[in-house]
Design brief:
It is built from two helices and no strands.
């Protein structure tokens, strides 16, 4: 049996721009680098790697869905029942 716990949290931001082509946006322009610039190419590679990672996580979640066992919440214990008073042992009220 294979047990696998998967928890992924990536919280990182990259702010970079090409010094020669500061208006290059790999999200909009895709792999059309300006003049074969190596910095623009690396920006595209980082963006493409981000897309591939997001796709891989989605595929993994979709394929592992049938085998996921969700934890059930703990059941609360009921308070112990109190014993009913025994007949004839009541305290008389004066």
């Amino acid at each position: 049996m294979l047990k696998f716990r998967f928890k992924l949290k990536i919280n990182d931001a990259i702010e970079a721009k090409c010094p020669r082509h500061p208006r290059f946006n790999p999200e909009k322009e895709g792999h059309n680098f300006k003049g074969g610039c190596s910095t623009c190419r690396e920006l595209w590679n980082v963006y493409r790697a981000k897309l591939e990672l997001e796709h891989a996580v989605r595929v993994f979640q979709r394929q592992s869905g049938p085998w996921i066992k969700y934890r059930q919440p703990r059941t609360k214990k009921l308070p112990a029942p109190t014993d009913p008073p025994i007949a004839g042992t009541e305290i008389p009220i004066v």
